[in-house]
Description:
By secondary structure, this protein is α+β, with helices and mostly antiparallel strands. The protein is 26% helix and 29% strand.
Amino acid sequence: MRASNLYAPTLRNTPAEAEIASHQLMYRAGMIRKTAGGMYTFLPLAWRTIRKIEQIIREEMDAAGGQEIMMPILQPAEFWQESGRWGAYGDEMMRIKDRHGRDFCLGPTHEEMITALVRDEVRSYKELPLMLYQIQDKFRDERRPRFGLMRSREFIMKDLYSFDKDVEGMNESYKKMYDAYTNIFTRMGLEFRPVEADNGAIGGGHSHEFTVLADAGESNIAVCTKCDYAASDEKAELKPVEAPAEDELPLEKVSTPGTNTIEALCDFLKVPADKTIKAVAYQTDKDELVLAFIRGDHDVNEVKVINQIEGALDLRMAEEEAIRAAGGCPGFMGPIGIKKDTHVLVDATVMNMHNAVTGANEVDVHYKNVNPQRDFDKDAIIVTDLRMVKEGDPCPHCGAPLKMTRGIEAGQVFTLGTKYSKAMGATFLDENGKEQPLVMGCYGIGVGRTMAAAIEQNNDDQGIVWPRAIAPFEVVVVAVNAKKEEQLTYAEGIYDECRKAGLDVLLDDRKERAGVKFKDCDLIGYPVRVTIGPKAVDEDIIEVKVRKTGEVYNFTRADYLEKVQELLKDL
């Protein structure tokens, strides 16, 4: 490819709307252009990288036993109604009607579609296991698209679905995909961690996010400083905090005027926050009231809360009327005296507290000397882990301190079990001729998001620093002054030699100033730059620069190609 023919309109200034490095640099490097909010056109450089990412994914999916298919983007409502998600998925689903008034959606994901496909074809356990995947556009009507490809309304995803006859088989498929994802992100040259994650709207059992470590990431990750435990902050397990033993004092109501916050309560009673019990009230999407109680110096993890309420998909802050109807008092709420048909969740750490303070469900009144093991109605509460992890919390596996870092979720693997197969009647006949539901898993990678994550992790003040495996071109040959025939001819010879050696190479033959070309090379981030100037023409000395390290080498014409190939091996 010649740069004189390449459509890569680079920019010197950063667009005002681009907030993070990947968005800014893809714009400036002539890789993407905005079509509408959350919708982008991939220009040739970006598309070359996308295709390289897809090829790595395909190779690893095929090696793990996956078979590629292509399903329609347009999905009939009937499949989603069978699974129960047509009404439950929410406003992110883009819904349309055809000319006959029938409901369809633009696929945000394909669990329903693949389940419907397989249920009509697979009849026997002899046809299992089965793994089918596609690489295709998905559509989600994000409330606030932002950060370029990180949160967009149209995006490319690889989604694979596994079908097995039992849980053991599903776990084997999960392990194959876990290993395949590890290979994929390793081959791309990215620093990543598989972290335990919540399944969210997909549902099912356990899950891991494959997270590319980057400061701009939206995911908060708890990483053990000693063992290999890592989990998203939504999923991170926390063991109950033990409290020193105390003699239990009698439960007592006290007047606490105006103390409707933990801070005000601590100041008024002269007690530390870790001796108080904080209440947070929610309502689900079905208007069920949920009261969560945690230690005053801790924060509620809303994902853990919602996972305790069967059928709940969303939470919002509770209305005062709902709280009062359950026997609570906003600002002065506690578990004692709440009506028994209310969802009352108590963090396990709270149950270890002694002589604590909590609301008395009366205005300006609290209980003190609360001993939850003695004073709470254990038949009316659910005791569980509700806490949000924070830096320094002990690892649930080894007890070492957890460190908080940030990352970008590029892929996720899920076990689904029989969530979709039971709902949609996808069954097979087992060895005894008995009908059984298929046991499923699903596995996704955001292709464009992975490209953006790679840039977030690999950039500097000059521009992008691509890992070799996914760079739009591995090598760029720059004719310093393409107006001089001898330099351009020499550069063309080097370009041809690199191509014949199997390198993915670009020839910058533009009649631009050398400084413009060099700036573009650094901005776009080609791993290796081969510079052809007067020294090459006169002395057969070729300058080679490595983008990642900035190191510059001078090689002879006789050995430059071997040296470039050696340098690329480390990139």
